[in-house]
């Protein structure tokens, strides 16, 4: 949600990919791709954003905290980021999502969006459940 220098962004993508591979993820056994190259993520985020009300997004604690750290000038990208997260989950019809405690409210938003979509257009998206790790 914050502008990045293109060269830094490209290097971050390579570094993240290297870290994923170094952790033992085997690209012969799983699909590894750059999400930003899949236009359906942004397309579904737009559709879901048209079904999501602004007051709900304004109540999310992450919006409040980050907006405060940006001198009360939060961007539209920051506000709608949870809708993009919902699109990332729902696009693949995920049924279970590993999340940390700080992301539970965002997953609840994804659940609410899925239910709203299904009620309006018929059963299409599974309502994803959280998988919380125990530390």
From TrEMBL:
Molecular function terms from GO: ATP binding; tryptophan-tRNA ligase activity
Single GO cellular component term: mitochondrial matrix
GO biological process: mitochondrial tryptophanyl-tRNA aminoacylation
EC main group: ligase
EC code: 6.1.1.2
PANTHER family xrefs: TRYPTOPHAN--TRNA LIGASE, MITOCHONDRIAL (PTHR43766)
Name of the molecule in the record: tryptophan--tRNA ligase
Organism name: Nesospiza acunhae
Source species taxonomy: Eukaryota, Metazoa, Chordata, Craniata, Vertebrata
Originating gene: Wars2
């Amino acid at each position: 949600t914050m502008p990045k220098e293109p060269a830094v962004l490209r290097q971050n993508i390579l570094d993240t990919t290297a870290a994923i591979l170094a952790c033992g993820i085997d690209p012969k056994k799983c699909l590894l791709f750059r999400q930003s190259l899949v236009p359906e993520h942004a397309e579904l985020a737009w559709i879901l954003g048209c079904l999501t009300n602004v007051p709900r997004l304004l109540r999310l604690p992450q919006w409040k905290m980050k907006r405060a750290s940006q001198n009360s000038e939060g961007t539209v990208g920051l506000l709608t980021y949870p809708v993009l997260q919902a699109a990332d989950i729902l696009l693949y019809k995920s049924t279970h999502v590993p999340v940390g405690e700080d992301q539970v409210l965002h997953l609840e938003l994804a659940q609410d969006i899925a239910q709203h979509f299904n009620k309006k257009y018929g059963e299409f998206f599974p309502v994803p459940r959280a998988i919380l790790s125990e530390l």
